[in-house]
Amino acid sequence: MKSPQSPVVSARKAPKQERSARLVSDVLEAAVRVLIKEGARRFTAARVAEAAGVSVGSLYQYFPNKEAILFRLQTDEWDRTRAMLEAILGDASRHPMERVRSMVEAFFRTEYDEAALRKALDDAAPLYRTSPEALERKAATMTFALSFIQEALPGVSDADQALAARMLLTTMSTLGESVSERAQSIDEVDAWGREVAEMLCAYLERIAQRNGQ
Question: 109, 130, 139, 165: which has the highest count of C-beta atoms within 10 A?
């Protein structure tokens, strides 16, 4: 039995003129509105085209299917988050644990601010999460997290470094999503962010102590 093929999620082409760039921007803005309002199950290219005020044919010039639209929304969100995290973790002037605290608290805030979109994108993830493009993005995020852990815990074994990187990303994403869905205020989000940051820092410090650092 053949395994199901991953959907094509790459854009057909990049807009080169201002008019086409505006069309793609309108489509993506409309896609966010449709996704949040209708949910992943009712999300279609036709609904997006209608909301954007363009023809389906015009939309298909740039996006081959709804999965490609959703994946573009997801990658844009990933890029925003990754840029923020890299700016914080890459600041070598600060102690690594201080950077972890700032990163976790900032991440929790973005989860709260974008809760509706992120929840909708999580629901849509089965449509594209096994695509080569999605797996490549996930691997790149892990590579970045591992490079930070290697800096923060230089004398630790490769296995412990890899585990720490996975723990960092998994804890942030899982708890961040849960808190953003349930928190009643930004103050509650900030409180959770501080507690999770302290928990992760304590975990990393225990690893360092085990290895004589």
Answer: 165
